[in-house]
Amino acid sequence: VIMDSLLGALLALTLSTPTVAFVPIGGGAFTHVSITGTALLQKVTDSCRAVAEAAGHEFKPTGTSSGELVQACLGPRAPGEVSGAKFLSALQEINTQNGLVDRDFVNSAPHHFNSEAFLEGRGLITEGMVAIKANIRKENFKAARETLGRVLHTLQDFYSHSNWVELGYREPYSNLIRPDLPLESLADVNTPTCSDCPSGTCPNQILSNILKEKKLTSGYMGIFSSQKPK
User: Fold this and answer.
1) Which residue spans traverse the membrane (predicted)?
2) What is the CA radius of gyration of the chain?
3) Cα–Cα distance between 184 and 17 in angstroms, integer?
4) Strand partners of residue 162
5) In contact, 177 and 17? CB cutoff 8 Å
6) Quick one: residue 83, left, alpha or beta (phi over 0 = left, psi -120 to 50 = alpha)?
7) What angle do CA 79, 81, 84 make, to 5 degrees?
8) What is the pLDDT of residues 96-117, one digit of tens each?
9) Degrees, nearest 5: CA angle 5-22-69
10) Residue 174 DSSP label
C-alpha cells in the first residue's frame, strides 16, 4: 500500500513538473526500454528528494539499489525493512507496456509519429495524460503506470521519427503535452520533404527549404506496403 501510494505521488509529480529530457547515461545504442528506465530513475530520484524534504528528512541514499532509494525516500523512521522488489515490479509494468506498443500498434502511424501523423500522435499523448491523472485520483496505480509506459513510447518516437533534432532544437517540444497549444509548421503527405535515395545510404536527404522554414516532417514506414509519397 505504501509503495502504491508512493508511485502515485511520483507519477503525479512526473506529469505536473517539467522533465528536461530523456538523458541516457553511457555509450552505445539505446532502446525504448533503456531510455525509459534511465528517465524514470532520474525522475524518481528527483521526486523522492522533494518528498523527503517535504517530510522533513534529508534525502541521502546509502546506495543505488531500488531498496536503498525507496528507504531514503520514505525516511529513516519508516517502519520495518524496506524492500525494493515491488518498486522494481512497478517500473517493469511501465517498461513492458512501452515495449508492447511496437507489437500491438506496429502499423499505427500516430503511435509512432510516422506518416506526418503529428496531430494524431499528440492526441494519443494528451489523452493518455488525462487517463493517467484520472487513474491516480482513483488510486488505480497499475492502470496509470501501464498507460504511462505507452505514452512514453509515443513521446520518444516523436524525437526519433521526426526531424526535430535536424531542425536544430535541443529542448523537448512542450506543445506535445499541451493540448491548448498548437503544433505549427507541419508538413503533410503532399509536401515534398526529402530527396529520393535508391541506395538507402544517402546523407542529408531532407530538402533545404524544409530546414530553412523549420517545418516538421516525419519518417514513413510500411511493413506490408512499399508505397510512400513522392
Assistant:
1) none
2) 20
3) 24
4) 218
5) no
6) beta
7) 115
8) 999 899 999 988 999 999 999 9
9) 40
10) G
